[in-house]
Request: fold
Amino acid sequence: MVGLPVSRVIAVTGGLGFVGKNLVQKLAAAGHQVRVLDIESEDLVGDLPARVSYRKADLRDGSQTREALADADLVFHLAGNSSGTVSVENPRLDFETNALGTFNVCDALRHKEGARLVYLSSAMTYGQPRHFPVAEDHPVAPYYPYGASKLSGEFTVKAFVETYGLSAAIGRAFVIYGPGEDPRRAGAEVGQYLRWHMNGLPIEVTGDPDRKTRDFIHVSDIVAGLTLIAAAGEAGEVYNLGTGEETSLRELVAAIGRVSGSVPETVVNDVVTDDTYRLVADVTKLRALGYAPSVQLDKGLTDLIQHLGDHPAPPMLDTIFRPSQRGAAGSL
Ligand SMILES: NC(=O)c1ccc[n+]([C@@H]2O[C@H](COP(=O)([O-])OP(=O)(O)OC[C@H]3O[C@@H](n4cnc5c(N)ncnc54)[C@H](O)[C@@H]3O)[C@@H](O)[C@H]2O)c1
Reply:
């Protein structure tokens, strides 16, 4: 794995989540000792790979966080609320998890000589972008609680870099897809669309299918990007984690039809248009460190269809930006 010394004790917060599981597997396969930290109960841990240990901790609690990270010298901080809908419905939970949780991680590492931190943030910090592709110096202007709590986490990391010399860098992920998403929490299009389509259900498209575009990045490319940031990212710097490929929702539906061999049925929810805007990453900065996203969308979709099987659990999360929209997505 790119330049990460095997001697380090690596902690992955949120290591039982979608991105976390994929990262932990890759780190363990490369021979690293990995400590998974998560809030989930130990009976749900299941079969973690060899060399991986589990520590239950709630990162909203400063002392639990400190104890759980006591012997880690490289921390990938992935734990958080990853759902925009949850952030709208329970903004306090969102803020305590994403903002306070990130503060607790930084504070736990503050006095640890040589500790290194990689924080996984989100492109939702950009809000509705104004120029394209979106580079890291684009203004940040989140428009719902999730983006605000993730941005607060970023500012906290940067403040600890400046004030305490913490060695930390930030990845801003675009829209991640791949194996391991929990349909109870996942609201991103690729997983949702496939889960509807493979159950013979119509795909619910939220927003304008042509004007709304996204940069869909396979989770294995996120894992590669995160490890590269850990190895070579500069302290205090932010790196976009995307592909640079822009895909409209209509193109995504067409790609699903192409790789699955059956034309998807769609229903368009044009009532909820809050997130109808273009979103595509400029990844020049990470490319300069050697990053090269390698999974094309068609290949990623083909693999995911195989992974999900014939009747995966259907999506369980509505897309809500304001409480008044509750029910709008179901009334198509
Ligand atoms: N999935 C995406 O498309 C996407 C895009 C951009 C950024 N991100 C960010 O990536 C990170 C991981 O996302 P994911 O998709 O794997 O999410 P996920 O919901 O699958 O995993 C998050 C994990 O964090 C754990 N967690 C939640 N609260 C916790 C707490 N208080 N203490 C300890 N653990 C806690 C959960 O139990 C879960 O295992 C998140 O921080 C998210 O904001 C995700």
Remarks:
- The longest strand covers residues 116-122.
- The two ends are 46 Å apart (CA to CA).
